[in-house]
Design goal:
heterodimer, A: mainly alpha, 18 helices, 5% strand, B: alpha/beta, six-stranded mixed sheet, 9 strands, globular
Chain lengths: 521, 247
């Protein structure tokens, strides 16, 4: 075989810098680590996402909360390994005697590393989105998590590469990987601790606190925070590229303390140094601006809003046609089309108890899913019955006080899940004040002993095992749980018509707390 | 003149590695001899524009290497083989030489052919697709020579180029140096005086940062005719000049 036979066909037409980049891509170390990244991606990101409802925004949160954490440490470490290559392999003199600027040479090596990492990241996103696309019943793939992810992968790659260039030792790569791992951990911690009353700078971490189950469903996902995150990381990237361009100068200054002015014109020429300084300044300015913007963020019903970046059109609800089913006695159960897969589970839970109270004053004729983020306890919209005819509004995150929402279904759609959902409806029906929506938004009044006993009885009659809660009133000296359970069993043992007749006659008194356990039939 | 040095010095802290060297050289093979620590490598690094002189004037290929634009022009016409050749183990032979051809800003259309020619000249055509990590020390040295000559340099700087080469390869390499020296200035720093005798048209001997002898290999041989130690005539000349310089 001759040497000419090894030449790549058509390579003569490719410009020199592109050929250098192609060589760097071809001989990058990143592909060696891709199997490990793929395993991490499967066991962390995909398995986590698979446990979430197939709602686009929710599944996409696995990109920033899991995938990036897996990628960052490896990406930064690999980039540091490549960045330190000239120092480790002692090619410094050899490459320094060539005319191509050090910056251009490093850009090719950096580009080769970033190419593989971005390709791996985007391939992972594609797998996640294809999987979600096959399961989702509404909506489309959100792009902002992808933009944030790309910015994150780039910034950790450039960070690692710059560290490797400035400190070219064999321990640089592992140290950088560990540093990025810890930084990710700190960022995740900061993101989790961002609340309406706290400092909001933690929002700049690409990680987010777990979003509501219906994020991006009833309202558009606000791009305000992702914009600030991309600006912040983009700024750091620019600044690091500037530092990379100034690396020879910084090295000389560190080693010899030469006058800055003389050093700046040394090396690859003053104009390259000038570009590096401009990049550094622009990067710092962009990051500082993003940092300042993050400080103005405030939590609204539609998510974190940054006034300077906010588009009011994002606040408009997303139109949709609910998926509904009709149960016995004309009771309809509706879910958002994004949760169509849960309709039968929700209907199976609510229909039996709806049948028990059908026709009673204030009994709901329909159950509708509403947005989960609201002004109630924990920042969630409480479930309540309102309107005429009465409608039971529930959300996918929480029904009543203890419902776990749509997370984990269908695997979690067992007896407890059903009972909790039924309890949410009955709490709303039996609580005082029973129906006014304004009062319901501040949370439901706790049930008294007789109300609790009736609720338990209705659940037993509907075939469920009521949770063994203590009396929510919590008064000392009140009836014991055993007494409530006994009363519930007694009431449940009545015939359906007898229960219904008693409730029709005593519902108002029961709601207002005027019925005692002893008065229950 | 391709090389013009006027009182060039280079210090590392208090240690003066090159001390007031003045030198001129045109096309031909120029041998640089001297004991360890004489300053040969520092002088070669200055000629390679890797190391700026602490003082003195340096002109290469009729250009001033202190200025960025002329320095870039010099580097385009420069070939350099350092004493310790660093390399990237995952690169193949052809990729490594191509990489340096591209770093030397050769026109893209010429690169593939130039790489092939360079590899054939060092007899590495059969190993073109071998990874560098699989090569022996002598083969790596030939890869280093190939990357140095790939751009057909006007100024070729070789620091210990024959270290690790077998006798057959050394003979072939001397022929290559003579061939290159017909059009270019080839500076060869070496401990092996037989290389100098066989290939160089001119030789300089360095000691303690200074050039203590400059002439033809025959003139150096003549210095050792009366005294000097060594097996070969050139070695005796080498040792005689060094003894005189140290006394």
């Amino acid at each position: 075989m001759t040497v000419m036979a090894t030449a790549v066909p058509g390579s003569a037409r490719v410009p020199g810098p592109s050929r250098v980049l192609r060589l760097e891509i071809k001989r990058s170390v990143v592909p060696w680590v891709l199997p490990l990244l793929a395993a991490l991606f499967y066991f962390d990101t995909i398995r986590t996402a698979s446990g979430l409802p197939p709602v686009w925004t929710l599944r996409a949160s696995a990109i920033t909360d899991h995938m990036l954490n897996d990628f960052d440490a490896f990406g930064a470490g690999l980039a540091a390994w490549v960045g330190s290559r000239e120092g480790r392999r002692k090619t410094g003199d050899l490459v320094a005697a060539t005319p191509r600027a050090a910056w251009a040479r490093q850009a090719a090596a950096l580009g080769g590393t970033a190419f593989w990492l971005l390709l791996a990241f985007l391939a992972g996103v594609a797998v996640l989105y294809v999987q979600t696309g096959l399961q989702a019943t509404w909506g489309g793939p959100p792009l902002w998590p992808v933009f944030v992810g790309v910015a994150d992968v780039i910034v950790v790659t450039v960070f690692g590469f710059t560290c490797g260039t400035l400190f070219p030792g064999r321990f640089t790569a592992p140290l950088v990987a560990i540093a990025i791992f810890l930084l990710d951990f700190a960022g995740f911690h900061a993101a989790l601790n961002v609340t309406a009353g706290s400092s909001t700078y933690g929002l700049l971490a690409p990680d987010t606190s777990p979003p509501p189950v219906d994020a991006g469903v009833f309202y558009h996902g606000l791009p305000d925070v992702p914009i600030a995150q991309v600006m912040f990381m983009g700024g750091i990237t620019l600044a690091l590229l500037g530092v990379l361009g100034l690396a020879p100068v910084l090295r000389k200054l560190a080693s010899r303390g030469w006058p800055v002015r003389g050093t700046l014109v040394d090396g690859d020429g003053w104009w390259l140094r000038a570009i590096a300084v401009v990049l550094l300044a622009a990067g710092v300015a962009a990051s500082w601006t993003a940092y300042s913007l993050a400080g103005t963020a405030k939590l609204t019903a539609t998510g974190w809003e940054i006034p300077a970046l906010h588009d009011a059109a994002s606040d408009e609800p997303v139109p949709f046609v609910p998926d509904c089913t009709s149960g016995p006695d004309g009771f309809r159960v509706c879910v958002h089309p994004a949760f169509s897969g849960y309709l039968s589970d929700v209907a199976a839970a609510l229909d039996p108890v709806a049948a028990e109270i059908a026709g009673l004053p204030g009994a709901p004729v329909r159950a509708e899913q509403v947005a989960s983020v609201g002004t109630g306890p924990g920042g969630f919209e409480p479930s309540y019955i309102a309107g005429n005819p009465a409608v039971f509004d529930y959300n996918g995150e929480q029904v009543g006080d203890l419902f776990g929402g749509f997370r984990g279904i269908p695997a979690g759609a067992g007896p407890f899940w059903r009972a909790a959902f039924q309890q949410g409806l009955l709490d709303s029906f039996l609580a005082e004040p029973p129906h006014p929506a304004a009062a319901a938004r501040t949370g439901l009044a706790p049930l008294g002993a007789a109300q609790q006993a009736v609720e338990d009885a209705l659940m037993i009659a509907a075939g469920s095992q009521p949770p063994q809660d203590a009396v929510q009133g919590g008064q000392s000296g009140g009836p014991s749980q055993a007494q409530i359970t006994a009363a519930a069993r007694r009431f449940a043992a009545l015939s359906p018509s007898a229960r219904h007749a008693w409730l029709a006659a005593h519902l108002r008194a029961l709601e207002s707390g005027q019925i005692t356990l002893g008065q229950l039939p | 003149m391709n090389i013009e040095l006027i009182h060039v010095s280079r210090s590392f802290g208090k240690n003066k590695a090159v001390d007031g060297v003045s030198l001129e050289a045109g096309p031909g093979v120029f041998g640089l001899l001297g004991p360890n620590g004489a300053g040969k490598t520092s002088l070669l690094r200055m000629l390679a524009t890797v190391l700026p002189p602490s003082s003195g004037q340096l002109r290469l290929l009729d250009r001033d290497p202190r200025k960025p634009v002329p320095r870039r022009e010099i580097r385009r016409r420069l070939g350099y083989l350092p004493q310790n050749l660093g390399y990237y183990p995952s690169f193949t032979v052809v990729e490594f030489v191509e990489y340096f051809a591209l770093l030397k800003e050769m026109p893209s259309a010429r690169v593939s052919k130039a790489v092939a020619v360079a590899l054939e000249r060092v007899d590495l055509g059969a190993k073109a697709k071998a990874r560098l990590r699989t090569l022996s020390g002598g083969m790596l040295r030939r890869v280093g020579i190939a990357q140095a000559i790939v751009n057909d340099p006007e100024l070729l700087l070789l620091d210990e180029p024959t270290a690790g080469l077998d006798p057959e390869q050394r003979v072939a390499f001397r022929t290559l140096m003579r061939d290159l020296g017909e059009r270019s200035t080839v500076v060869v720093s070496t401990h092996l005086v037989e290389d100098v005798g066989a290939a160089c048209t001119e030789v300089a001997l360095m000691n303690a940062g200074q050039i203590v002898f400059r002439g033809t290999p025959e003139e150096l041989t003549a210095r050792g005719s009366d005294h000097g130690i060594g097996d070969a005539p050139l070695e005796r000349g080498y040792s005689a000049v060094l003894s005189a310089a140290r006394s």
